[in-house]
Write a structure and sequence with these properties.
By secondary structure, this protein is mainly α. It is 74% helix and 0% strand.
Amino acid sequence: MEKIINFFNSNKNNNIRLLDVFITGPLQIYISTLLKNIFFKYFMLITGVLNIIFNGYVYLLESKYIKRKHPYLKHIITENGKTQIHRLYNLFIMYPIFLYILLNFKLPPYLQLVFFINIIIGFIFNLHNFILIKNKQ
């Protein structure tokens, strides 16, 4: 259990970023292909693409494949990855919209389960890091 907690707690641990790049982002893009509502379709598509780009970039940055942050990104990438505003967006806009999609659109049962797990874990992870980082400041 301690290894699992350490896996999710480490701010410098890129395991979560790789999960976002290879699982969460593609999952969001795949779900976007199943939605008929244009707003939700593009919301999921854009969220998935940005998830892959953001987490891929931060992974490369923290792994030292990229030596320094691009000047335009210095305000949206912190030493803890996301800014607190980004976490609040995830908690109060993105995950509630994901939950709305889950509850109101017909998705295959396996996809409902995976998406539900993604929503719960993502919400808890963002809330935990929001509180943890807020208390460190």
